[in-house]
Each structure stands twice: as structure tokens, then as C-alpha cells.
Amino acid sequence: MKRTHLSSAIGLVLGLVLVAPLQAQQANGDAGAKTTAAKQADAKQLQEVTVSARRRDESLEKVPVAITAFSGEDMKDLQANSIDGLQGAVPNMNIVQGRGSSSAVNIFIRGIGQPDALQTFDPGVGMYVDDVYYSRIQGGLINLFDVERVEVLRGPQGTLYGKNSTGGAVKVVTKNPGDTTEGSVEAGFGNYGRREGKFYLGGPLGGAWSASIAGGITQTDGYVTDPSTGHKYNDEDSKSVRGKLRYHPSENFDAVLSLDYTKQDTGLTLGQPVSTLKRTDLVFGSVALYTPTPDQKYDFKTRTSFSPDKGQQLEHKGAALSLDWKLSEQWNLKSISAFRKLDSDSYIDIDASQFELGDVLVDFHQKQASQELQLQYDNGSNLQAVYGLYYLRETVPSHQEAYADDLFALAGTPITFLRTIDDDLTTTTYAGFAHMNWQFVPSWTLAAGVRYSSDHKDYDRTTSTFWGQPFTAINETVAFTGDKRWNAWTPTISLQKQFNPQTMGYVSASRGFKSGGFNGRANSTAETRTAEYNPEYVWTYELGLKWRSADNKLQANLAAFHSDYTDFQARVSEVQNPGSITPTFAFPVINAAKLKMDGVEFEGAAVFDDGTRLSAQVGYLDARYAKFVDHRLDPSDPLYNPRLHDHVPFSPTWTSRVAATHVFNLGSGSAITVGADWSYRSETWLSVDNYDALSQKAYSVTGLFGIYDSADGHWQFRAGVRNLGDKVYKTDGQEFSSVGNIRTAYYGMPRNWYANVRYNF
Q1: Are 119 and 136 in contact (CB under 8 A)?
Q2: Structure letter (DSSP) for residue 176
Q3: 687 within some domain
Q4: How far apart are CA 684 and CA 669, in angstroms?
Q5: pTM as predicted
Q6: CA distances from residue 8 to 15, 238, 277 in whole angstroms, order as listed
Q7: Domain presence at residue 144
Q8: Residue 334 lies in a domain
Q9: Please, which residues bridge with residue 444 across strands?
Q10: Residue 19 pLDDT more than 80?
Q11: Is 712 a residue whose pLDDT tops 50?
Q12: How does strand 277-281 pair with strand 408-410?
């Protein structure tokens, strides 16, 4: 794919930064010094964390919700360049790059998510950037070049955040310009041809106006090689920019206009076939095309049938206007208006081989417009409330092509096969919500709320199948439409007790909802009759405790929960006529299951006077099916497999992380910070249909980093290594067993190192 040199990236960054007024460095000369001093102070005391989980700013320790929050510097210490860098840092959370896509992200919290990346599915965990909902997982692999903080809310967030937040929500808050000029420029490099540049510049324009601009360029050469061509894949080539204009004439009014743009241009994202790939020969029967070597460690070499010019492109852009009016001492009105546009053109080699079995093009163009109004009330003492209205309209037209010239043959001669799909999904959502927080007696607070959501989907689909000679007579076109509205009430209630200034406990119950939809893989007339599937619902009951020592040196948060999850939307893969010489394959979506999840989560931190900080996150999850409706579990069915659904996907029993940092204060006032972390994940299943090849045994990974901060705070040097032990581990899987026996695993990045330098001015 397209490449630029490191010097070009750095030149662009520096060129943009130089448009700043010359007084910027002078105006912020002392601010840099405060940065290093603050870091040294942080090493000896835990800082209070402010979150906006309940649509207003609150101390994390006072919110009766299981939340993990990270500042921008925390994300750097996690060695996280994008949102998937949170993997391992949040209890009971799995976050991985979407299957076969360089831009998509699949998020699971407490076993709830969406294991299929097709654009007709809704995510199970909501993604929000500056309170704007991102409705597709494509484009969700957000570059964190200008992040102020990231909040991860665990458990259903259906009252304040609406549909598709059954598992939880991830909130990204970016920096707003203020009254002080500040900025930075950063450049870095690493192995696998890594080069990157970032910049940020923000400050006053005069009067009540201020502005900021931030951007980043990240490029790598890729860590998977096609041994037949030497071409590299699983690369990165991302360019992002965000500009903000703020008008803040008084404490009573604040307006922020945000514009952002991201462009990605990468090669294929390749995994490895982990089962025997098969061709159906109409004369000779099933013929093996590829057989993996049992128990062979993946060497990050994968062949592909696509030419090197077939890759993945994405453009993602948006505009948002946030208006905040203080109407009186008690009342505040907030408006969030947003428009987003996403264009994605991706080739995906599902079978990850030189054969054309599951090769596809997915080309879709998404637009969404949203409007949210919030009326907030605070009596200044014991009662706070928020009332809201929400509107979203989304259109997702797409064109897909599936190439499978190696799937069928006649006496050894391949039969060409092409399937084209054109569909168009329009979703319109209306919602109203209310939430209150009432301290009815000293130290006791009751919080309750409810949301009503109405979700309407209109779907049109046309599938055309083209066979080569001598079967052109069976070519066909199948079309169907779907039109359905789903409504839901999603309440929440909590009771919290402030035992003392350091300790808070709570109990809560909340409901989540993800709307129904239409199967985006219904390719035959028979499949169209059952293309509609119902919504998912979850009730979660939680008991929590949050504690911080009086001297701010120790902190511990504990949560225990039980979830009842119904009507899980499961995409499975099945052969409809297994006894035929010409089997047909299908990918039905079924409301298959009732699940129960029980779990415990712990997060703790400790700081010592010598500049040492320790932290730990531990999650325990017992996720199991109470019921799974699938004809393949019937002993009389030709496809009977009693072990097919023994395990809930992306629900490891244990997730844990331990981290340590130490700050060495140098005599000059500068500081060196060293840090290490170790994360562990127990056995994880990577598909709804359980196959041993699509599971990952328990594993752990380790990371190391070091930072030098100059005394004046202007210079920072950072270097680190991720996956120090060079562990080979699976992160995701493609399961299309009915098509050529395709089962493909995707892998985490091998050991990789980086070095960055940043100048703050």
C-alpha cells in the first residue's frame, strides 16, 4: 500500500506546529516545568479521577457503577496507541481488532459483545467519542493522539446511553482548548518499520474564542509475510486530524465545534487457517486443498490469493457541535449535534490461503446524524437529575463480492463462482430518558432512571449468484426486504451508602437492550424467510465497594455481579443438506441462547514515598448457557455435535494484570520513570461454534517501558517493548466451516519495540 518516509511525517507535523504564535513557548514556559513536578507528586499520591459516566462530572469514587478510567498519560504507560491497547487493563474485558479488518474493533465486557463484524450487526458495547455514539465497529479502532481520558463502564448502560450498550460503554474524551496556550510535537520509530508523528496545539484566539488542532500519522510495514511473494501484511497506515473551535464568553455558556478526519490505507489483515481446507468435487467428493501442521507454532507467514494491490481503505470523518447553557443556578441545558460519514473498501481473505474459498470484498458507505438534548438539574445539595431526548438516523448501503473459484470442481476442473450482494440498511432511533440522584438522608443516596427507545430498521437486499460452465443455468438472483420496529424500556436503580469519607458501597440493577435486525448473509429464498431476528436483553445485578485511604496512598474497588442475558443473536455456520454431493451452506442468525454470567472484579493501586506505584486488576467470570436452541444439538440431526456450545465466546474465566512503576528523581530536577506490566488471560474461545482450533489456551504477556522527563518539562523521551516474551497467541477467529471447512485464527503482534521523543511548548 501507499507509504511515506518518516521524514515526511515529521515534516508535516513540524510544519503544522510552526503556525502557532511565537509567544506560545513563552506563555507556557512554566507549564512544562509543572508537568514534571506533577509527575513526581503523582508518584507519591493517588490523584482523584473525575468521570462523566452519569452525564455530569463526578469523582469516580462516588459513582455506583463499575468504571475504569485512564488519563492520556495512563494510556501512554499502557503503551496503547489505539483503543485496543486497553486489552488486559480492564477486568473482564476483551478488546480485539475486528476479524480480517485493520480498522474494526470488537469489544466484549463481562462476556457480552457481538462476535460478528458484518455491518448489519449492532455492537454489544457502545463506543462514544466526546459523547457522540459511533454506531459501527468499523472505524472504531481509534487513534489516541489527543485523548484527555478514556472511561470504560462495565455492565448495561441502557438508561443513559441507550441501545447497543448491553455489555457496557467505552467513552473517549478528547482535549478541549482553554485559556492557556499549550502544545506538543512527537516523533517515534520502532521495529517492523514503525514510524509515527503526533502534534497538538491549543490556546486562546482572543476574546471568548479558543481553538486547537491535533493530528497523528502512524505507519508500519506489517508483521505477516506472504512467503511466495515476500509482501508484508497486517501493516498500519493511518492519518488523523482533529480541530476544535470553542466559544466561552462566560461561565453560563460554552460551545465547542469539533471536526475530525481519519484515513487508513493498509494491506490485508491475514490470519492462519487452523483446519483442513476442502474443495467439493462433484465427481470425487471432498478434496483436501490445505492441511495445517498439527501443533506447529505460527511463524507469521501466510499465503493469500489476493494480489498485493488489494488492501483495505477507510475514510472516517465527522462534525459535532456541543452547546452548554447554564440557565440558572439549578438548571443546565446541553445539546450535542453530530454528523458522521464512514467509507470503507476492504478485501478480506477469510480462508487465509492461496486458494479462493472465502475471498470477499466489502464496500460500504455509512452516514449517521444524531441529536441529543439534556436538561440537567442540581439543587446544590442532595438532588441531581438529567432529562434527555435522543435521535439517530443511520444509512448503510453496501456492495459485497464473494469469490470462490476453488470451492467447487467437476472431475478436478474448478468451477468459477461469484456472488454479489447489494443491500441498504436504514436505522432510525428515537429515545427519551430521565435519571435522578437523591441523597434522601445523610450518607444514603438513591439513584434511579429509565429510558424508552424506539428503533426502526428498513432493510433491502439483493443477492446474485454466478456459476461458471457447465452450471450457468442455475444462476439466480434473490431479493428480500425487511421493515420492523422494536421498542424497549431500560431502567436502572441503585442504592449507595457512604460509610465514611473513604468508603462507599452500592447495590444496583440495570437493564440493557440491543435491537433486532435482519440477517446480512441470507443468500437463498429459504434463508430470507427466517432472516429476521429479535432483540437481545440483559438484566445485571451488582454489588460494589469503593475505598481510598485518607492519605491517598491506597485504593481498592470491588464489584460482584450476576447477569441474565436472553435472546443472544448468534451467527452460526451450517450445511443445509450434508448428505448431498452438492451441499449448500448457510449462515443463519438465531436468537439462540439464554446466558447467565456471574463474576467478581477487583482494581487496586498503592503508592509509596520512594516513588513506587503498584496496581492490579483481576476479573473472574463464570459465563455459561442456560439454554441454546440449535438443531445440531439434537442427537437425531445429521450434524449432531454435543460439544458445539460448551463455552461462551470471548469469556475467559480469569483476566488479570499487575503493573509497577518507579520514578527516580534526578538531582537536576528531571526524572526517569521505569515501568513493567504482566497480564494474564485464561482459556478463551473465539467463535460461537466451539472448535478446539479456534480457542486460545491460557497465556500471559509482559511489557516494559522507560521515560525521561527534563527538569523544565519540555522534553520527554519514551521507549518500551511490548510482548517481551514474544508469545504467539490467538486473538480472534473466523468460523465459516460450511464453506470449505474455513476456520481462521488471527494473532497478536509479536515482540515489538518503540522509541519516541516529545517536545512540550
Answers
A1: yes
A2: P
A3: yes
A4: 46
A5: 0.91
A6: 10, 14, 44
A7: yes
A8: yes
A9: 441, 497
A10: no
A11: yes
A12: parallel
Mean pLDDT of the chain: 90
Are 59 and 50 in contact by the 8 Å Cβ rule? The answer is yes
- The 8-class DSSP code of residue 535 comes to P
Task: Give the cell for residue 26.
Answer: 513563552
Band the pLDDT of 353: cuts 50, 70, 90. Answer: very high
Positive/negative CA dihedral, 571, 576, 578, 581:
negative
The grid coordinates listed for 493 are: 436503580
**pLDDT of 90 over the 50 cut:** yes
24: phi then psi, degrees, rounded to nearest 5 = -55, -45
**Confidence label for 139 from pLDDT (cuts 50, 70 and 90):** confident
The whole-angstrom separation of Cα 617 and Cα 89 is 7
Q: What are the distances in angstroms from CA 214 to CA 11, 76, 174, 211?
A: 15, 17, 10, 10
CATH of the domain at 67: 2.40.170.20
- The span from the CA of 517 to the CA of 482, in Å, is 9
Q: Interior CA angle at 489 toward 485 and 492, to 5°? A: 150
DSSP of 282-337, one letter per residue? TTTEEEEEE-PPTTPPP-SB---SS-TT--EEEEEEEEEEEEEEE-SSSEEEEEEE
Quick one: average pLDDT of 408-430?
94
Give pLDDT, residue 593. 86
CA distance readout (Å), 352 to 347, 360, 428, 673, 740 = 12, 11, 37, 42, 12
Instruction: Choose among 572, 566, 604, 596: nearest CA to 586.
Output: 572
Q: What is the pLDDT of residues 269-312, one digit of tens each?
A: 999 999 999 999 888 888 999 999 888 899 999 999 999 999 99
Determine the average pLDDT of the residues in 369-381.
96
Does residue 387 come out as left (phi exceeding 0), alpha (psi in the -120 to 50 range) or beta? beta
Copy the grid coordinates of residue 605: 493501586
Cβ atoms of 444 and 169 closer than 8 Å: no
Q: Which residues contact 244 (CB under 8 A, 6 or more apart)?
A: 174, 175, 176, 177, 202, 211, 212, 213, 256, 257, 258, 259
Residue 589 in contact with residue 571, Cβ under 8 Å? yes
Name which of 206, 113, 149, 158 is nearest 539 in CA terms: 158
Q: Any idea what DSSP says for residue 112?
A: B
Q: How far is CA 550 from CA 42, 502, 553, 604, 754, in A?
A: 16, 6, 8, 15, 39
Burial (Cβ within 10 Å: 0-12, 13-18, ≥19) of residue 692 = exposed
Q: Grid coordinates in use for 490?
A: 431500560
Cross-sheet strand order for the sheet of 277-281: 285-290, 277-281, 408-410, 413-415
The number of folded domains in the chain is: 1
Per-residue model confidence (pLDDT) at position 309: 92
Q: Which helix (H) or strand (E) holds 624?
A: strand 612-628
pLDDT, tens digit (0-9, with 9 covering 90-100), for 683-694: 999 999 999 999
* Least confidently predicted of 11-25, 107-121, 234-248, 558-572: 11-25
Strand partners, 655: 619, 681
Three-state DSSP state, 726: coil
Predicted local confidence at residue 15, as pLDDT: 40
The answer to whether residue 1 is domain-embedded is no
Cβ partners under 8 Å of residue 744, min gap 6: 100, 271, 272, 273, 274, 350, 351, 352, 733, 734
User: Rounded to whole angstroms, how far apart are CA atoms 175 and 150?
Assistant: 11
696: containing domain: 6-760
**What cell does 24 get?**
506560545
Q: Name, in order, each residue with C-beta under 8 angstroms of 473's C-beta and a sequence gap of 6 or more.
A: none
